[in-house]
Amino acid sequence: MKNRRVCPKCGGADILRVEGKAGAYGSGNNIMTGMTIFSAVLVHRYVCCDCGYSEEWIDKEDIRKLKERF
Fold first, then answer.
1. Averaged pLDDT score across all residues of the chain
2. Which distant-in-sequence residues (6+ apart) come within 8 Å of 42 by Cβ?
3. Which of 3, 9, 64, 67 could form a disulfide with 53 if both were Cys (CB 3.0 to 4.6 A apart)?
4. Please, how many CA atoms are within 13 Å of residue 20, restricted to the half-sphere of its CB?
5. Residue 24 backbone dihedrals phi, psi, to 5 degrees
6. Contact status, residue 17 vs residue 1, Cβ threshold 8 Å
7. Percent helix, strand and coil across the chain, each rounded to 5?
8. Are 30 and 18 in contact (CB under 8 A)?
9. Cα-based distances in Å from 10 to 16, 37, 69
10. What integer is the mean pLDDT of 35-48?
């Protein structure tokens, strides 16, 4: 869904990307790897507007942060 922009469930092509965000006290769609907002790894959502299926993805460059922490 992320790369092809096609829903794996229904084959729809109306895909919406919802950006991850990091807010105060760890709020938002993220994974905290430290104590501050600057350590947050953003989790982006891809939603099929035809059937409602969704997937969550992390940018490749942020995977290193997760490996170091977990």
1. 94
2. 19, 20, 21, 22, 28, 29, 30, 58, 59, 62
3. 9
4. 19
5. -60, 140
6. no
7. 25, 30, 45
8. no
9. 15, 37, 36
10. 94
**pLDDT > 90: percent of the chain:** 87
CA distance 3 to 21: 21
pTM of the entire structure?
Answer: 0.86
Q: Which residues pair with 30 in a beta bridge?
A: 42
* Structure tokens given for 3: 């790369």
Would you say the C-alpha torsion 59, 54, 29, 32 has a positive or negative sign? negative
31 in helix, strand or coil?
strand
pLDDT at 55: 97
List the structure tokens of 28.
Answer: 């938002």
